[in-house]
């Protein structure tokens, strides 16, 4: 299969936001509010070693070096399962990425073992060694990161040892 990105047409696979990209901002409410304004109508490009449409199960599986892009958002994973309803046209219900999930947007990078976007609830969840890093050095680590795109409220729950950990950067002061 050609590894060059293929543009998905909305009629063929209408991934409205590929909200997985929103995972890049999972751990903070400020980031969630920014992502809630993401243009969900932008074209979605993908590249993978293999694609399988499972029509009877209402899902599409992308596997092997999966690379999904929408505007400035990018998702990379070993495997991505796209669940949809097929009522005349495909409408995405849920996207699950697994295997070294990396989501980037501008200077933010989110990583985890699994990333899930529930389109109906507008909730993004990353689990398993979930981490987000921002270009200025801010870092958050936990076992589970959840962002509610409706309310802009984000939460993190325990990682190893049952605790959330991280680092805040401190702005440099002139002369100090």
From TrEMBL:
Keywords assigned by UniProt, alphabetized: Signal
Keyword Signal: yes
Signal peptide, first to last residue: 1-32
Bias type Polar residues, positions: 166-176
A GO molecular-function descriptor: glycolipid transfer activity
A GO biological process held by the record: lipopolysaccharide transport
Spans annotated as Disordered: 153-176
Organic solvent tolerance-like N-terminal domain: residues covered: 48-152
InterPro entries in UniProt: LPS_export_LptA, OstA-like_N
Gene3D superfamilies per the UniProt record, alphabetical: Lipopolysaccharide (LPS) transport protein A like domain (2.60.450.10)
Record Pfam families: LptD_N (PF03968)
Keyword Cell cycle on entry: no
Cellular component per GO, a single term: cell outer membrane
Name listed for the protein in its UniProt record: OstA family protein
């Amino acid at each position: 299969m050609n590894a060059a990105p293929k543009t998905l047409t909305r009629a063929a696979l209408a991934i409205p936001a590929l909200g997985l990209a929103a995972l890049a901002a999972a751990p903070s409410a400020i980031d969630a509010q920014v992502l809630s304004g993401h243009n969900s109508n932008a074209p979605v490009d993908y590249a993978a070693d293999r694609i399988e449409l499972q029509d009877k199960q209402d899902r599409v599986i992308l596997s092997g070096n999966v690379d999904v892009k929408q505007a400035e958002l990018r998702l990379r994973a070993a495997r991505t399962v796209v669940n949809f309803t097929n009522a005349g046209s495909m409408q995405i219900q849920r996207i699950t990425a697994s295997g070294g999930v990396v989501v980037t947007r501008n200077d933010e990078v989110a990583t985890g073992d699994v990333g899930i976007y529930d389109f109906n609830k507008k909730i993004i969840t990353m689990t398993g060694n979930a981490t987000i890093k921002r270009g200025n050095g801010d870092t958050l680590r936990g076992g589970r990161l959840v962002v509610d795109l409706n309310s802009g409220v984000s939460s993190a729950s325990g990682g190893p040892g049952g605790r959330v950990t991280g680092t805040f950067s401190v702005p440099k002061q002139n002369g100090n």
